[in-house]
Amino acid sequence: MRTLFITHHYLSSPGGGTFASRAYINAFAELSDEMTLLYPVKEGEGLFEGINTCIKLVPVPYELPKVIKLVRILTGKVHRYFSTAPAYIQSGQFDTVVFDTSIVSYRLIAMAKQCGLHTIVIHHNFQYEYFRDNTHGPMKWITLFWCQRYEKQAVQLADINLTLTKTDKESLIKIGGQQTKNSFAVLGTFEYQYTEKKKPQKGNGIKNFVITGDLSGVQTYESLIPWINNLYAELKAVFPDSHLTIAGRNPNSQLLALCQQHNISIIASPPSMKPILEAADCYICPTSLGSGIKLRVLDGLKWGLPVVAHNVSARGYERMEEAGCLLRYSDGTSFRAALTQLRERALNKEKVLAAYRNVFSLEAGCKRLESILRDFHIHI
Known about the structure:
By secondary structure, this protein is an alpha/beta fold.
């Protein structure tokens, strides 16, 4: 397989999208005879680490005045690759092109089909739902307008549509039509490097709960604030001696005041999450907005922490739920029930970590991807 991989994400930036993209890049590199990566860069950006050294890297800058960028977005030029990617697609060097998000596939995927390439689109989420829940201001409606078009085009033209969750797969089939359902496979997410985690320290029961994430993100604080107001009392009822820590970037004044009112520890923009997660006994993910997989759940699982997650945040973690490492809820009653189960199970951290490695290691991800490609008769 000779692969051209085009990604939407800045690979030196923090965040879930970058984490997932690095994993997919490395997995495709493992399975390709050769691979070229087109990736976005901005002025002053440093080098990124953790990418397979066999990949040919092609940085693509986008140094245009803001006014020109705005005009391009308004007219449907939603990505930077319109002038760069065609030469690679038409070069004859590749038999497969992977579009990392439907955004970068727009108007390029039809060209790839005409050139006889296998076309693969990785959908990190149901984009329309994601932008609907995370975008504010005058650009929201133009963003949603073009999103409908490029997402539908990607679904209908891709030979393989890869999703992170079953929920996203079902949503995308609805916009693409039932004729596209056989083009879908759920890949999930996984680590981007082969890493050996140290054994977690053994805890003495469950006392320390933790919530992490970008606290300035719309879907985070709009989920977290009502969770504190309505469900934090349930946590204290089931675990009276418990202590909750919330950590993440740039919490707003409302969240800071609310934490102070409820005696919740809040750590703003910590230099490292490691000591916070090491000291925790259970991870809570209350995010109830947006689509795709909530990668912050991995932050808990990779440290051997059982997870209690809202139904929206539990998407994509069904295998961890089957292993008994994740409990889901939808309201106050089911949250209390999940906490009661958690107290009764008294999960061992090493068991959680073993289940995590079985599903979310790079090796496990490569095996899933290889199986999918073979099912679609793509030669590896």
